[in-house]
Amino acid sequence: MSDKVKSKLTRKFPGVSRRSVLKSAAVGATAIGAGPLMFNIAKAASETIRIGFPVPLTGPYGSEAQEQARCAQIAVDQFNAGGGLGGRMAELLVRDDKLKPGEAATRTLELIEKDKVHFVCGSLSASVQLSVNAVTKARGIIYVSISQSDAINEAKDFSKYTFHEAMNPHMTAGAVGRYAFPKFGKRVAFLIADYAYGHEMVRGFKQAGEAHGIEVVAEVTHPLASKDFSPFLPQIQAARPDVLCLCNFGYDQMNSLKQATGFGMKQQMQVLAPALLYNQRRAGGAGAYEGVIGGANYHWTLENSVASAKAFNDAYRKENEGAPPSDYGAYGYAGVGALLDGVKKAGTTDSDPVIAALEELKYDKYKGTQYYRKCDHQSVQSVFIIESKSKKDMANEYDVFDIVHTDEASEDVLRSCAELGHEA
Hints:
This protein is an alpha/beta fold. It contains 15 helices and 15 strands. It has helices at about 5-10, 20-30, 35-45, 60-80, 100-115, 125-140, 170-185, 195-210, 235-240, 250-260, 280-285, 285-290, 305-320, 325-345, 350-360; strands at about 50-55, 90-95, 120, 140-145, 160-165, 185-195, 215-220, 245, 270-275, 295, 360-365, 370, 380, 385-390, 400-405. The strands form 3 sheets. A 7-stranded mixed beta sheet has the order 7-6-8-9-10-14-15, with helices on both faces. A 5-stranded parallel beta sheet has the order 2-1-3-4-5, sandwiched between helices. Strands 11-12-13 form a 3-stranded antiparallel beta sheet.
C-alpha cells in the first residue's frame, strides 16, 4: 500500500489512524502469504482505480484546463469518501498535453503503458481529443472527452470505448442560432479560429440558420492563439452584418471580443459566442462582454432551481475560498463523476462491463438528468443560452451571466446516428 493511498485513507476517514492503516496492511500481507491465488485476489481488491487526465495546463486554454482538473479531483474525492468501489480508492493523474495532438498522444500512451491507468478523461481541443481517442481506442481503454467536438461522435473516429461528456458544436451553435437569428437579423459574419472547433461551430450555425434564411456576408479565419485581431476585424465591419459569431475559444475569444469592443462593433452588430466562457468573461471584464449572447453547459446560478447544481457549487466553494465553479470545470466534474458512477454500477474496472453500465446510466451531476446516446455515446443534455451582464446589474463579482433561455435535453437537436455513419 503506497504512502499516497495511506494518506488518502487517513484524510478521508478521520477515524482511521495512519498506525491502523499500517497495521492492516501488515496483517493483510501475512494473510496473503498463503499462496499466489490469494495474493492476486487481494491485489485486485485493493488496487487503486487510476484515471488519466491529459489537459492543456499551459497555453491559451490553461485557465479552463486547470479548472477542469480541480473539478475532476472533487469527483474523485467524493467517490473515495463514499467508500470507493468496495474499498478501492480512485486516483486522478493529471498531465499537461500543451494543446498539441502529438504531445497529447505521448502523454496518453505514457499514462496507459507506464502508469497503468484504467481510464482516460480529458482534453480541451477538437483536434487534441481525436489524438487521445486514437490512442485509447487502439488499446481498449475507455476515454471520456470533456471538450466540444463533432468529429469524435462520427463513425470514422468513434469506438465503443469513446464517450463524449461535453456538448458538441452542432448542438451548441444550433441552440444559439435558433435563439438569436430571429431576433437580430439575417446578415451573418463569422470570425473563425482556424482549426476543427472553429469550423464545426460555423457549420452548426449555418445549419441552424437555414430555417431562418440567413445570408453569410463574411467568413474570416485567424490562427490559434492570436493576440492581434486588427487584420481581421475591419473585414467584418466592411461586410456590415447584423450578427457576428465568434467561433473561437479561451484567450482567443477574450482578445477578439475586447478588440471588437474597441472597434465599436457591438454598436453595429449583435455579437454571439457559441461557447461563452465564464473564466474569460471574468478576466475580460464587464465592459468588453456586456450584451454578448452565447451558449453554455452551465452557469453557477442554476443552484437557485437545480439541487445538483447547489451541491456541486457547495463542494467547489469549500475547496476554493467561496468562489463558484465554471462551465468548463463542470465538464471535468461530470466526466469523471459519471465514469466513476459507471464503475460502481458495473462493480469492476473491466472495460466491457463499465461500457454497458455507462450506456444504461442516467446521471445528474450538476444540471439535471443526462445520459449517453447508445449509437455514439454523446451525452444528451440541456443547453443554456446566456447573456453577459453589465457591471451595474451584477450582484457580485461572480454574477456575470443571465440565463435567458434553456434548450432542454433532447436527441432531436443532435445529428442523427445515420448522419454520423452509425447503423443505429
